[in-house]
Design brief:
Layout (H helix, E strand, L loop, with lengths): L18 E2 L5 E2 L33 E2 L3 E9 L3 E8 L4 E8 L3 H20 L6
Length: about 130
């Protein structure tokens, strides 16, 4: 779950329009005011350890395709990163799950839920 303070500065996107998800949905990003930031708005460096958050660096490329542009936010289970899909010249969000075993089941549950939603997304009742 993300709160207002968990989003990074996205001013580099100004003028480029909304960021589009791989499924075609758009989402907007707003930069927080500097005076609104507190330490509790950050997941903390100590959380980047075995079983915790995976360190992701701007500029890294995942699967030879997704280049990390900026951190969008974080939650209890993961961090979320804005990436450039270099194969299709589009922006995508990459969610990086914590590595502890008890988070794995939650990740698989989320993947299953999102796959079902993607299958049914074009149905009128959805």
């Amino acid at each position: 779950r993300f709160s207002r303070g968990h989003f990074a500065d996205a001013s580099f996107l100004s003028g480029s329009g909304p960021v589009v998800s791989p499924q075609g949905g758009a989402f907007a990003m707003a930069a927080p005011d500097a005076e609104d930031y507190t330490e509790s708005d950050d997941e903390g460096a100590d959380a980047y350890r075995k079983g915790g958050y995976h360190p992701v660096t701007v500029g890294e490329v995942y699967n030879g395709r997704y280049q990390v542009i900026a951190k969008l936010g974080w939650g209890h289970f993961s961090t979320v990163w804005l990436c450039q899909d270099m194969s299709f010249s589009r922006y995508v969000a990459m969610k990086v799950q914590k590595s502890a075993p008890h988070y794995t089941e939650a990740a698989y549950d989320e993947i299953e839920l999102l796959a079902e939603a993607a299958k049914r997304g074009s149905l009128p009742e959805w």
